[in-house]
Amino acid sequence: MQKIRVLVVDDDRTVRRMLAAGLQQDPTIEVVGEATDPYNARDKIVELQPDVMTLDVEMPRMNGLDFLRRLMPQYPLAVIMVSSLTEEGRYVTLESLKAGALDFVAKPGGSGGDFESMILDLRQKVQMAARVDIKEFVKTHLTDSKPFARERAQGSGISLIVVGASTGGTQAFSYILERLPENTPGILVVQHMAPGFTGTYANTLNKHTLLEVKEAETLDLIMPGRVLVAPGNQHMAVKEEGNSMRVNLFEYEKVNGHRPSVDVTFNSVAESSAASSAIGVLLTGMGKDGARGLLSLRRAGARTIAQDEKSSIVYGMPQAARELDAVEQELSLEEIPGAIMNLLESHRPGAPR
């Protein structure tokens, strides 16, 4: 079996060696080289032709984001970012996903257990990245979108939209959100992401959309025009209070290996009075989280959408839902905003079904 060839890029020698040693504990991975900065990495990429590169976010001379922006148009390569937990590091990491990185891992806070967990996560993401058709990804995801018009939605019988995503989901959901009007019914989003990054992600989305986007807090009201992002390391569920709905956050055990878990949020909506007037959307991501929850939503009367294989960076979550017959419509990313608008229109009081 041919091993996945990995180039490790980090200005810290100790970190480079730790990452290389940790990756090579996996028999399917071979670290073919190490680089100290983007200039050194550029030469190593040409020389070694790696399948995947791990790239430090914060480096002297040129940071990882600037390097990525120069590299991807000329030499598409599967890249996993290795991010610090500083505010600037989180921001640059999320910008790197826009520039073509497939995913990221966060450097641990200090304990050996944290490092082992990070290395396990990195190995999994390297294996995922090696399977992506990176040239097709660059062609379809890094081209400028055409201008679009967002008309205000008419009053709809849809009360709630709930979205789940993992790898590739930050950009996929951003694409959808930028195409929805400001009075769209309340949206709950579960994106597999480390603590700290979800707040930065929500703030970034808030600057580029017509809707209010915020990291969810317990008892936040679900209302039209508002998007609530589940915080890293906390599950998010709906809580009914009379005629209103709010969110409840809690640190229960991980579900499907994740906290927040898409299944937890989807199931809570399926068990609520809003189930039959909800839309469930499952986007690109590794694993099966969200598949059973989407099935619960469909059985409870919700309308369900999943991203198709061609437009997904990783088809795992949508495919798992499709295999359970949880998906009413399987659509390309480009088709999903229009499908949501059509459902809002078809559920408007008095509209023909």
Task: Summarize this structure briefly.
This protein is α/β, with parallel strands linked by helices.
- Total number of domains: 2
N-to-C SSE string, H for helix and E for strand: EHEHEHEHEHHEHEHEEEEHEHEHEH
Lateral arrangement of strands in the main beta sheet: 8-9-7-6-12-13-14
Cα(first) to Cα(last) distance is 53 Å
CATH superfamily of the largest domain: Methylesterase CheB, C-terminal domain
Number-wise, the strands total: 14
Could you walk me through the main structural features you see in this protein, from its secondary elements to its overall organization?
The protein has a 7-stranded parallel sheet, sandwiched between helices. A 5-stranded parallel sheet has the order 2-1-3-4-5, with helices on both faces. A two-stranded antiparallel ribbon has the order 10-11. Strand 3, helix 3 and strand 4 (78-83) form a beta-alpha-beta unit. The chain contains 12 helices and 14 strands. The protein has 353 residues and is of the alpha/beta class.
Provide keyphrases for this structure.
alpha/beta; 2 domains; Rossmann fold; seven-stranded parallel β-sheet
Write the layout of secondary structure elements.
Elements: E1 4-9, H1 13-23, E2 29-35, H2 38-48, E3 52-56, H3 64-74, E4 78-83, H4 87-99, E5 103-106, H5 112-131, H6 134-141, E6 160-165, H7 169-177, E7 187-191, H8 197-208, E8 212-215, E9 226-229, E10 235-241, E11 244-250, H9 262-270, E12 278-282, H10 291-299, E13 303-307, H11 316-323, E14 329-331, H12 336-346
Helix pairs in contact: 3-4, 4-8, 9-10, 10-11
